[in-house]
Structures are given as structure tokens and as C-alpha cells.
Specification:
alpha+beta, 4-stranded antiparallel sheet, 1 helix
Length: 84
């Protein structure tokens, strides 16, 4: 799923201004796609009954370090999975 680009940009502009912890650069890019981080089950794919975190990723354009933001906590995605 994709989030609203303008809302993501507004959120990142207001919350993200810091330097990359890896290289010190302050140049970030983002993707409006929401990704999933699943609970690890020894390499086995488990559908249902397992924790899943939604993630919005931002990437340092200098070194490639990726930061992950929970779009629900950021107010960009509802708990039911609808973009806000």
C-alpha cells in the first residue's frame, strides 16, 4: 500500500531534520510504500497469529542507511490499515 505523498513529506519535514547516524549527512529520501516487518519464526513463513509491524522507510542518500518509522505511531496509517 502507498501513503499520501504530501502527508508523508509534511511529517518527515516536521520530525526529521537530523543527521544520519552512520555518515553525518542530512540528505534523506523516502518511499511512500508501507512495508511489513514480521516476527521471526526460525526461517519459517507463518501466516496469521504472528506480530507484524508496518514500516515507512527513509534512506540516507549519501551512505544508504535506512531508518524505519511506524506509520501508525506517526499518524499516517490507521490501525485498520487505512491511510489517514
Amino acid at each position: 500500500m502507498k501513503l499520501d505523498d504530501a502527508k508523508v513529506r509534511t511529517y518527515l519535514t516536521s520530525k526529521l531534520g537530523g543527521a544520519c547516524g552512520s555518515c553525518g549527512a542530512k540528505n534523506w529520501t523516502y518511499d511512500t510504500a508501507v512495508y511489513e516487518l514480521r516476527e521471526f519464526h526460525g526461517g519459517n513463513m507463518v501466516i496469521g497469529g504472528s506480530g507484524i509491524l508496518p514500516l515507512l522507510t527513509i534512506t540516507c542518500t549519501n551512505c544508504g542507511t535506512i531508518r524505519m518509522i511506524n506509520p501508525i505511531a506517526a499518524g499516517l496509517l490507521s490501525t485498520s490499515g487505512e491511510a489517514t
